[in-house]
Amino acid sequence: MAYKFLLNFKLTLLIILIGKENIAYKIPSVEIEIFKERGFKISIPDDPGIQRIFFMMIADESCPALMDYITQATNDSWSSTQHISLQNNDKLQVSVLVQYNDHIYEKSETLVVLNTRLLNVQQSSTRNIITKNINRNNGSECQLYLSSDQRLSKQCKPTSSIVNSGSTSQGICQGALLFEDNFSEAQLNTSVWMYDIRQRMYHVEEELVAFEDSPQISYLREGHLHIVPTVASEVTEGAYQLGDRCTAIESRQLECSISKGSFHKIKPPVYSAQLHTRESFNFKYGKIVVRAKLPKGDWLFPYMMLQPVSTHAETHYANQLRIAYARGNDYLRNTQNDDISGHRLYGGIIVWHDERAVQILKNRLSTKHYGDDFHNYTMIWRRDKLTLLVDNDIYGEIKDGLQFFNEKCFIIFGVTVGGFLNFDDSILMNDVKPYKNKHPRAAFSFWHNRNTWASTWGKDSAMIIDYVRVYAD
């Protein structure tokens, strides 16, 4: 029905307007009330010259647009009530068309939700709209123009993708490139990528690694990003202190330091890197493609994933969309004798409930280890379906669990070691691992038995990323 109103409104413009520009009226700023329950109300105050109003609203850059055609003021205002929720950090774009004393005026505003309030971050001036007739195939087509001769119509199929406040999907067609890094510069672009700097052993069941920003661990070379896990030279002498560099979110005491001589504690046995785009780029819905060579080596585990912006890269038990992963082990089987080594690729969803992981995964077995060659790993994230591809071949579709990802996500790349979820004791045969998850001396046991795993690490133990690209979908 709204589209019919819009069409009638456009046709009325053709009848009323003669193309004479006259800025005799200024549209006031919109007033917005967010309800405690689902929805919000948008309005502008009444004026004796207003004849009718058309509101168009785009909530967090999500299509389709919300539209309302108002022909009568109520309680001294022209208002529209919408029944969709606005979340914190959502962006609301509002365009208002006002017929005032037989002239049409347009104005747009952009507001951002901050703690249940809407802050105006951008506002255009009131503009008079003129119309223009175009003959095409012996027919007549009326197109709306701004006084600057800027067309309102779009010539491409709209996208459902939503990007962060630093960008916009408005005016972007499906298939458009939203984000790209080819890692072709001499140094990593630190305005795009940020490092997670902290140790991961603060929970006894966590990974046996500390993330650092050392140039020996993470660097660019010949157009590739290298993340190189490195075995520590010693783990028992002295204390481990990250100081102000630490990016801890939950507990600086646990994540940023290890006291010398503390009970059952050693310094991290492995140093690696994890980096993310939380502050620079995030998106909701789209296609992400990562061309990469995964790491090879016992108990190595790569992270190529998306994580909700309401969390941080450092957040414990965060929900994750895992683009792809394969364990570093060249040979590893579970208690059912299934191959779960680096020959099997996984992708899908990790959702946490009561500190327990619900894994909704798809997998594909290959005759080769996924660390032997570069592959294109693709995830297509839509509102109702997650599609997983490797080298353009679909190996899985997931429809469950997507309700837990109703917000924008950011990109995370990294390589970790061990982990109670990545290498679950309950699915592995006894004495396969040189440590036990949740054991208070797990890190020391892993280090003490390094002769069994360090020899499997080498030049292929790095995760090497050629490029990452995100497309509108």
Kindly list the characteristics that best describe this protein:
mainly beta; innate immunity; 8-stranded antiparallel β-sheet; carbohydrate binding; Immunoglobulin-like; 2 domains; 9-stranded antiparallel β-sheet; Glycosyl_Hydrlase_16; 473 residues; 5% helix; hydrolase activity, hydrolyzing O-glycosyl compounds; Jelly Rolls; immunity
Notes on the structure:
This protein has 473 residues and is mostly beta strands. It folds into two domains: 2-153, Sandwich (Immunoglobulin-like), CATH 2.60.40; 178-471, Sandwich (Jelly Rolls), CATH 2.60.120. Helix content is 5%, strand content 41%. The strands form six sheets. Strands 11, 13, 22, 23, 25, 26, 27, 28 and 32 form a nine-stranded antiparallel sheet that branches. Strand 9 and strand 10 (139-146) form a beta hairpin.
Shape: elongated
Low-confidence stretches: 1-22, 131-155
Cα-atom radius of gyration: 28 Å
Total domains: 2
User: Any idea what the CATH architecture of the largest domain is?
Assistant: Sandwich
Signal peptide: 1-24
Domain CBM39: 25-119
InterPro entries: Beta-glucanase-like (IPR000757), BGBP_N (IPR031756), BGBP_N_sf (IPR043030), ConA-like_dom_sf (IPR013320), Glycosyl_Hydrlase_16 (IPR050546)
Family: Belongs to the insect beta-1,3-glucan binding protein family.
